[in-house]
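Deviations from the work plan: none for this task. Representative record:
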Amino acid sequence: MSISHKAIKDTALIAICAAVLFVQQLALSVLPNIQFSTLLIVLFTKVLGFKRTTLIITIHVIAYNLLSPFGSALPTHIPFMYLAWMLIPISLSTFLKKIDGTLGLAIFGIVFGFVYGWMFIPPAVLLTDAPFVAYLVMDIPFEIVMAVSNFITIYWLYEPLKKVLKDQLIKFEGQEKNGGSF
Amino acid sequence: MTHLKLKIIISIVVVLVGALVIRLLTVENRSTEAGSIYLYIQDEEEHVVFEGSLSYEEGDSFYDILNRHFDLTCANYNYQPDTECSYSFTTPGASGKVILGIKGDNFDLMTNWSDHFLAFYSYNDNEKKLTTVGPSNIPFQNGDVFLINYESAWE
C-alpha cells in the first residue's frame, strides 16, 4: 500500500471513529455522565494506537463543542476537557501500557471517572471563582456515576468490540488476518 | 463458578457500591422538631430585600420552609419556569427542586438559570459559605442563618 493510499485510509478511519464517539456522546447527553466515550477511547488507544486516538479526540472535542445542541462547554474549560480525554491514550501508552486485561482496564475506567471530574476543578476554581470545597463535594456523585458507567461498559463491551474492530481493521487495511501487526 | 457468573456478580457489586455511596451522600435533611431559621435575601445589586425569621414545622425541608413563606418559581425538567413547582430533579446525588424565582410581599426576584441564578449560603461563625446541595437538601438547625443571593453566572 502506498503512503498516500494509507494516509487516505487512515483519514477515513479516524473520521469514522470520531463520528461514532461524537454521536454516542450526543445521544447519551441526557443521562449525566453515562456514556461510552471512555470505553471507545480505551478501545481506540489499544487497537488504533496513540497517534490515531489523539486525532480522534481532537476532532471529537472540537466537534462536540461546536455542534452540540446542549451548548459548548465554557471556553475556559475546553482545554481541560481535551486534556482530560487525552489522559487515556497518554497513560495507556506509557506508564499503564501493561494493563491489557478487561478487568484491569475496567478498574482503570473507575479511576478515570474521578480523574475526569477533577480535571475541571482548576478552571472552575481559578478561572470562574467557584468555591473549591463546594465544587469538589457537589461533583462526587457525578464522578461516581461516570466511574460505574466506565467500569460496566469496559468490563462487558471491551473484548467483543476489540475483536470486531480488529477484524474490520484487518479488512480495511487489506491485510491478511494472520499477517497483521496487531 | 463460571466466568460469566463471576462477571455478573462483580458488575452487580460495583453498581450497588456506587448506588450506596451516592445514597449516603444524598441524605434528606428534614427537621426533627419545630423551630426557626433567619434568612436574608439580596437582589442583583446586593441590596437586602428581605430579612427575617422563618418558622418551620417538624418534617420540613429547607425548600418547605421557603415554600411556606414565599411564592416560589421552580425549574421544570427543561429549566423553564414552573410556578407550580411540580417537578423534582431525580439526578443521583443532585435530586430535588431548583428554585428560579422567589417572591415576597415587597420583592420579586426571578432568574433564568443561564445568566442569573439564586445562590444559597449558610453562615458559620459570621462566615458565609456556599451550600454544597440544593434547597431540598440543605441541612439546617434552629437559629441557623442563611442568605439567598441573586447572582450573575458571568461575574
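Chain A touches chain B at residues 32, 103, 110, 131, 133-134, 137-138, 140-142, 144-145, 147-148, 151-152, 155-156 (CB under 8 Å).
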